[in-house]
UniProtKB/TrEMBL annotation:
Residues 1-25 form the signal peptide. The keyword Transport does not apply. It comes from Daucus carota subsp. sativus. This is Amidase domain-containing protein. PANTHER family: AMIDASE, OS04G0183300 PROTEIN. The lineage of its organism: Eukaryota, Viridiplantae, Streptophyta, Embryophyta, Tracheophyta. Keywords: Signal. InterPro entries: Amidase_dom, AS_sf.
Length: 511
């Protein structure tokens, strides 16, 4: 007990010391993108100072939290470039993310000195052909690429027994609120790092829950966009039918600034982004950051079975209070709803999701690997062989690669896979779409991340916002989900809820 108490004291002291390591007139801890831009304009802060601060936080906290897998050796140079651009034209209006450090999940390719490895030694030293499309958009906006975030290895699509947030390269990611608690994955490092103030902005990816879950468990905001709204080119894939790239930040506003920056058409992901780009509203997404965004919104409370998964009376009480707040802020609540065929949707074998994902993964990962300029592995079969040859590496032997083996056994999109995909489409039409249509809903409301499969199989968007802390101090989020292209409504709802409740607080580093 004495050792544990001492360790907790050391973490708390290092956090206190780092929080005082700010510019004289500006505190960086918990600051938002708007705060940073005002500080830049008033010469209270430079991008270089901001990057230096975050690099210091990473040195202090990351040995325990393991949220960052690698830092960009050129981050300070990128920050200095942004500073010079502002100095050269002080009266200009710059993009929201200009000069702001961004951490990328280690699935998102960067054509620079950083590795892109999915947390695996199998891809260490590989060379990508180009920046991922979302990275190019960030660079064009003047953002600073701070580094790569840790993750559940191979986006949690390697083994059924792998601990959430663990990778062979990055180690075991820790929840900054309760270090022994699940940080959730697969975008664990992106959420851990933002929650612990090692960065303000990060990108995650989601196939089924990988943004919504870590954002929920680490008291941050995560946006899972409509599939195709953000390009997946240059992103290590699982499924082109379900994969999406989205922001993880400490506030809804910051997440919306990122979404607005990275959304849009990309010729390297033409089919999906062309269809989804029609959903992008004229004038962008920031116009929907409205304090009165809840007024008149019809919200469907989906209780069964999601609220039975909470298992914590304090969290349940918080949610009941939140429903009162939603009503007080002008929302119309339709309670006690259930998604048709929900038991089938939540069972990936019965729904067909598992069948479809295995085949899609093999096809997609092989195509990604073949496109690399340099790579130690060129196919899923090569990755499996690599893991077998290096089974002496920490934890690899116990974790196994049962999902990889099952995927390798597939042979393209055949009769079974086609049947599975058609089943998923029908479950979506007869499930969430029917529920929202029948009750004329703007969004459904559930505890995060339990609704993830419902949103995943249909390519639907969702936003999770901090909502509660359980009896052990572990955060829990609330999820607002909707149909394809409903991001404007979801942003209004999520921002209205956030501003009415302001649940998020800095991490406690409890043991």
């Amino acid at each position: 007990m004495a050792i544990c108490s001492l360790l907790q004291l050391v973490i708390a002291l290092s956090t206190f010391i780092s929080s005082t390591r700010t510019c004289d007139a500006f505190s960086i801890q918990e600051a938002s993108v708007s705060d940073f831009q005002i500080a830049f304009k008033k010469n209270l802060l430079t991008s270089r100072e901001l990057v230096e601060f975050y690099l210091g936080e990473i040195r202090e906290l990351n040995p325990n939290l393991k949220g960052v897998i690698e830092v960009n050796p050129d981050a300070l140079l990128e920050a200095e470039k942004a500073d010079k651009e502002r100095q050269a034209n002080s009266s200009a209006s710059f993009p929201h993310l200009h000069g702001i450090p961004v951490l990328l999940k280690d699935l998102i390719a960067t054509k620079d000195k950083l590795n892109t490895t999915a947390g695996s030694f199998a891809l260490l030293g590989s060379v990508v052909p180009r920046d991922a499309a979302v990275v190019l958009k960030l660079r064009q906006a003047g953002a600073v690429i701070l580094g790569k975030a840790s993750l559940s290895e191979w986006a949690n699509f390697r083994s059924l027994s792998a601990p959430s947030g663990w990778s062979s390269r990055g180690g075991q990611g820790k929840n900054p609120y309760v270090l022994s608690a699940d940080p959730c994955g697969s975008s664990s490092g992106s959420a851990i790092s933002v929650a612990a103030n090692m960065v303000a902005i990060s990108l995650g990816t989601e196939t089924d829950g990988s943004i919504l879950c870590p954002a929920s468990f680490n008291a941050v905001v995560g946006i899972k966009p409509t599939v195709g709204l953000t390009s997946r080119s240059g992103v290590i894939p699982i499924s082109p039918r379900q994969d999406t790239v989205g922001p993880i930040c400490r506030s809804v506003a910051d997440a919306v600034y990122v979404l607005e920056t990275i959304a849009g058409y990309d010729s390297n992901d033409a089919n999906a982004t062309k269809v989804a780009s029609k959903y992008i509203p004229s004038g962008g997404y920031t116009q929907f950051l409205r304090i009165n965004g809840l007024v008149g919104k019809r919200l469907g409370i989906v209780r069964n079975p999601f609220f039975s998964f909470i298992n914590d009376s304090e969290v349940s009480l918080h949610f009941e209070q939140h429903f009162k707040t939603l009503r007080q802020r002008g929302a119309i609540l339709v309670d006690d709803l259930e998604v048709p065929n929900i038991s089938v949707i939540l069972n990936s074998t019965l729904s067909g999701e598992a069948t479809a994902l295995l085949a899609e993964f093999k096809l997609s990962i092989n195509a990604y690997l073949e496109d690399l300029v340099i790579s130690p592995v060129r196919s899923l079969a090569d990755i499996i062989a690599f893991n077998q040859n290096f089974s002496d590496l920490e934890m690899l032997d116990e974790l196994g690669q049962v999902i990889f083996l099952a995927a390798e056994a597939t042979n393209g999109i055949g009769m079974d896979e086609t049947k599975a995909i058609l089943s998923l489409e029908k479950l979506s039409r007869d499930g969430l779409e029917k529920l929202m249509r029948d009750h004329k809903l703007d969004a459904v409301v559930t505890p995060s991340p339990f609704c993830a499969p419902v949103l995943a199989i249909g390519g639907y968007p969702g936003i999770t916002v901090p909502a509660a802390y359980d009896s052990n101090g572990v955060p829990r989020g609330i999820c607002f989900g909707g149909l394809k292209g409903s991001e404007p409504k979801l942003i209004e709802i999520a921002y209205g809820f956030e501003q009415a409740t302001k649940i998020r607080k800095p991490p406690t580093f409890l043991l």
